[in-house]
Amino acid sequence: xxxxxxxxxxxxxxxxxxxxxxxxxxxxxxxxxxxxxxxxxxxxxxxxxxxxxxxxxxxxxxxxxxxxxxxxxxxxxxxxxxxxxxxxxxxxxxxxxxxxxxxxxxxxxxxxxxxxxxxxxxxxxxxxxxxxxxxxxxxxxxxxxxxxxxxxxxxxxxxxxxxxxxxxxxxxxxxxxxxxxxxxxxxxxxxxxxxxxxxxxx
Length: 202
Known about the structure:
Layout: H1 3-18, H2 22-34, H3 36-67, H4 69-92, H5 108-120, H6 123-133, H7 143-168, H8 173-179, H9 181-200
């Protein structure tokens, strides 16, 4: 995979991970309620769920590209529409209710369970990956390149949430994020809409 293409993939994966939502709320809740260890475990287990969805998406898209190119085009256009909808939703969002998570007493075991459940029980995640990864998967792509895509999505998601857990466990990062949540939403919205336009324009 060319470096420029990988950098584009990494940027979009980071944007998706950093967007305020139920995943961030879950990691915040376990970090505030149990400290650094549960927060880190929640972030890593969530990343494993993300990696599972990324693997299924890459595997399925490869088969669709090979056998049903028309269906793949429909998926690509539908994905662009979905990304644009997410962008508009982010632009209309307020200061991010996900950043107002309440602390509850928790443990690493509970954090691991919740991390996987939040990732796998979120149907929007698979839609996001279909919309995103359809821009990076090609019919002649080998297993090594597909593995890079899956690893990138997994590692970036895990790295972001582990960073959040570590930072929140001993600092004043949460109030800073809460005060700037509307800007995070706006930047994410603009980037998602730009990606959707890029897809539609080929």
